[in-house]
Design a protein that fits this description.
The chain contains three helices and twelve strands, in the order H-E-E-E-E-E-E-E-E-H-H-E-E-E-E. By secondary structure, it is α+β, with helices and mostly antiparallel strands. Strand 3 and strand 4 form a beta hairpin.
């Protein structure tokens, strides 16, 4: 092979390799920039009547049986600190109430209450309206702990419906009265039977009381 042919092959090889190397260097540079300069955090603030704010952190997303969720927090009036208390459903505005010293945040899709008592050692309490056969057949004591009800109250609600053939989105929160702290819900045991339930949030926000079980609407 003549010297001219060798030089020609070397030039062709360099011409082929150089673009590949350049693309690799460009890719590494882009990755490095994206890692060192992350996108800004998306947070939404909802001003409250007590001059505090509800914070929705769109950068911290999760997923549950109810769909996507976002981290939620509360900033008291005059404070720069955020108290992160849980996750709320994406796409649905949380309902916020003031009841005396309590701040009550209701996430309707998950039927959850997040209650803040500034005078409590643990300021935030989560009460989830889940009952036997809503998720899995755990002991009655588990549902009492989740709801803040007594085991007797959970047992009374459990008697409204037997074992489900499939899971239903059972509890719908209808209204909350900030003066009386009464919470009205509809409890579906299947797609045919629903029962109106009325609860009352305790004065310290740590428990629920079963006030009334109404007549089935079907």
């Amino acid at each position: 092979m003549s010297r001219g042919i060798k030089i020609g092959l070397i030039v062709v090889g360099i011409a082929i390799v150089l673009p590949i190397v350049a693309i690799g260097v460009l890719f590494i540079g882009i990755v490095g920039v994206s890692e060192s300069d992350p996108s800004p955090t998306y947070r939404r603030e909802i001003a409250l009547a007590n001059h505090g704010a509800l914070i929705i952190d769109g950068n911290r997303r999760g997923r549950s049986e109810h769909g996507f969720s976002q981290r939620a927090g509360y900033r008291p009036a005059g404070s720069a600190d955020i108290e992160w208390f849980g996750d709320v459903s994406d796409g649905v505005e949380p309902q916020v109430y003031e009841s005396g010293p309590l701040v009550v945040v209701i996430d309707a899709p998950s039927a959850c209450l997040f209650i803040r008592n500034p005078n409590s050692h643990e300021k935030w309490k989560t009460l989830a309206l889940v009952f036997p056969n809503d998720i899995r057949p755990f002991p009655i004591s588990y549902y009492a702990e989740q709801t803040g009800l007594t085991t007797d109250e959970v047992s009374r609600i459990n008697e409204l419906g037997g074992k489900r053939e499939q899971k239903w989105p059972t509890t719908y929160i209808q209204s909350f009265d900030s003066k009386t702290r009464d919470l009205k819900c509809s409890y579906y045991v299947d797609n045919k039977s629903a029962w109106p339930l009325q609860f009352r949030v305790s004065g310290d926000g740590a428990h629920l009381e079963l006030v009334e079980i109404g007549k089935s609407s079907f």
